[in-house]
Sequence to fold (125 residues):
Amino acid sequence: MRRNLALAAYGWLAATGLLHFVIDVAAQFLRGARPPGIETMLYYGLNTAFACGQVTFGLLGLWLAWRMPQAALQWPVVALTLLAAAAWLLIAWIFIGYQEPKFNAAVFVLLSLAVAATAGMKGAA
Fold:
């Protein structure tokens, strides 16, 4: 159960980060949806950094939960995951104007809280 929750949380983060990059950066760039300028550069930079951070952290967490599930459920890893989840939610809330990244980060926060709640349980494997 705990391992599945961890896989779900990190898988959600990696998948939504990849989709965020494809939809909000690559598709808009290929369509030429934004005129060239400083605002466009900042938009692409923010969304690229946001999405690449999610994908990288999600893939690292997936690898850790898949290869070493006991290590992925240790409190330092869970605490780092909760900190990262809170940071992505805060960044999405402050800097990104539309709702989808906020929703995706909120789901990751909920999944991370579920992992944290079950990480201390001895009998749930």
In short: The radius of gyration is 16 Å. Helices lie at 2-31, 38-67, 69-72, 75-95, 100-119.
